Amino acid sequence: MRRAYNSVLKLPQLSKCPQCDAPYVPHRVCPSCGFYKGRQVISVTAGA
User: Fold this and answer.
1) Measuring CA to CA, which residue among 25, 26, 20 is closest to residue 44?
2) Distance between first and last Cα of the chain
């Protein structure tokens, strides 16, 4: 009975980044371009 709730849990929904159109988790920094709310928060290097 305690495990019955595990079937209700879902994976987080993904949104599309407005800067690079890559999928990302909402309310988080985009892992491919480093933007959050229209400004660059982290610098992402290619091939790292």
Assistant:
1) 20
2) 46
* pLDDT (tens digit per residue) in 9-31: 787 899 999 999 999 999 999 99
Kindly report the pTM of this predicted structure. Answer: 0.65
CA distance 4 to 35: 39
Q: Environment class of residue 29 by beta-carbon count within 10 Å: exposed (0-12), middle (13-18) or buried (19+)?
A: middle
DSSP secondary structure of 6-20: GGT--PPP-EE-TTT
Strand partners, 40: 35
